[in-house]
Amino acid sequence: MELNDTIAPIERPADEAAGAPPRKVFLKTYGCQMNVYDSQRMADALAADGYQPTEAIEDADLVLLNTCHIREKAAEKVYSELGRIRQLKADRAAEGRETLVGVAGCVAQAEGDEILRRAPVVDLVIGPQTYHRLPQVVRKARAGEKVVETEYAIEDKFDHLPALREKAVRSRGVTAFLTVQEGCDKFCTFCVVPYTRGSEVSRPVAQIVAEAQRLAEAGVREVTLLGQNVNAWHGEGPDGAEWGLGQLLFRLAEIPGIARLRYTTSHPRDMDDALIAAHRDLPSLMPYLHLPVQSGSDAILKAMNRKHTAADYLRLVDRIRAVRPDIAMSGDFIVGFPGETDEDFEATMQIIRDVSYAQAFSFKYSPRPGTPGADLAFHIDEDVKDERLQRLQALLGEQQKAFAASLVGTQMDLLIEKPGRNTGQRVGRSPWLQPVIVDEKAGEIGDIIKVRITKAGTNSLFSEPV
Ligand code: SAH
Ligand code: SF4
Ligand code: F3S
């Protein structure tokens, strides 16, 4: 049995045995895809312990916030939400109903018991590496104890992923995330992730293959491998050979039913030859690559501790495009890192023009307590950051639009994912991750069909079956 297939057995409390209505959990997720994945796992673990999910926070016996610490705004959002929850808890208490409030995720890991001081409404705090203890932590909190659970041993790191229940997978559709790696040793000077998610740990091949097989058996057609530094994943192949993400992708591509593979997020320094070869040789590896560069200025890249230059990045993109010409590039950018001059910013604009991105995420630098960047001199004024971000986003927006427009009239495979917003429609994803709308008669959810793109809208493409 895999390590992560076990949740410690828990005795049923008397009120559940007596047939009291099931408890309800409201889970709110902030931040990255890994939090989305973790929230599903937490919901699974709690379901096994008698908690049903609810979308209505006022019905919840347990409110759990799965939080993000990446920028100040993300972290502060949690406290304003906790302010609202305080009122809710008081209202429910007036009706004689108890509400437990929990903070999970990266704010939990970064701030620990400080959260209890700032927000006394909170009953439990649980870090991302200790989710396997969630049911026990909830029990303790229910018994009236304030619980802070953020300590873990590195060798237990992948124990924290509770079992994947087939029923839960089935209800979630035809695409799924699969965490293969967690944590980061890169220590970019702006970033909290090495502190909130700990050092880099790779999940063993057998665990990953078993989970992918379970997903495929439950009807999942597209799997996105997740990791804070997913392409730093490494492991031992069945033959004892050292594997990187490239070899792992080849193995996963053999699983019947899995038609599409993706991975995110990659660091430029970990794009090795085997991974580039996978883009050349694996038809099921989708032609889309999220490869953040953050800045186009060598001085800023150095200050960020990215350990590569702009030219290194451009050469890498050339090598990938040489083997997979239709690959769409996606990236992350930070404007206003301490010391960023106008010239540095123009270099970022230039690398965007040189690469041409199909999709991108961009942010104003946010100083994070405890990171080396926060202590640097020459912080950039907020209005300069605003102006730079606006110019950068305008350029990225044009590129995204041009990319979508270039697909009009072409044919492509479409994985049908779910009903569309309007009746008679279904929505799927293009190989390049764009939402594509098609008539519901074109195929069933989970089908991969050939379509022709008829029109590019602002956020999605329109298509007709061929
Ligand atoms: N592990 C991924 C992404 C981590 S966070 C990677 O290495 O690329 C996602 C993005 O948030 C980063 O790529 C970066 O662009 C942005 N980000 C991280 N810390 C930030 C900060 N302090 N201020 C602004 N943006 C930040
Ligand atoms: Fe953060 Fe850098 Fe690690 Fe990405 S590579 S998670 S940006 S420290
Ligand atoms: Fe945020 Fe933690 Fe993800 S800080 S971006 S939720 S790894």
TrEMBL record:
GO terms for cellular component: cytosol. InterPro entries: Elp3/MiaA/NifB-like_rSAM, Methylthiotransferase, Methylthiotransferase_CS, Methylthiotransferase_N, Methylthiotransferase_N_sf, MiaB_methiolase, rSAM, rSAM_horseshoe. [4Fe-4S] cluster 2 binds at residues 184, 188, 191. Keywords: 4Fe-4S, Cytoplasm, Iron, Iron-sulfur, Metal-binding, S-adenosyl-L-methionine, Transferase, tRNA processing. PROSITE patterns: MTTASE_N, MTTASE_RADICAL, RADICAL_SAM, TRAM. The keyword Transferase applies. Residues 405-466 form the TRAM domain. [4Fe-4S] cluster 1 binds at residues 32, 68, 106. It catalyses: 2-thio-N(6)-dimethylallyladenosine(37) in tRNA + S-adenosyl-L-methionine = 2-methylsulfanyl-N(6)-dimethylallyladenosine(37) in tRNA + S-adenosyl-L-homocysteine + H(+); N(6)-dimethylallyladenosine(37) in tRNA + (sulfur carrier)-SH + AH2 + 2 S-adenosyl-L-methionine = 2-methylsulfanyl-N(6)-dimethylallyladenosine(37) in tRNA + (sulfur carrier)-H + 5'-deoxyadenosine + L-methionine + A + S-adenosyl-L-homocysteine + 2 H(+); N(6)-dimethylallyladenosine(37) in tRNA + (sulfur carrier)-SH + AH2 + S-adenosyl-L-methionine = 2-thio-N(6)-dimethylallyladenosine(37) in tRNA + (sulfur carrier)-H + 5'-deoxyadenosine + L-methionine + A + H(+). Catalyzes the methylthiolation of N6-(dimethylallyl)adenosine (i(6)A), leading to the formation of 2-methylthio-N6-(dimethylallyl)adenosine (ms(2)i(6)A) at position 37 in tRNAs that read codons beginning with uridine. NCBIfam families: miaB-methiolase, MiaB/RimO family radical SAM methylthiotransferase. This is tRNA-2-methylthio-N(6)-dimethylallyladenosine synthase. It comes from Neoaquamicrobium microcysteis.
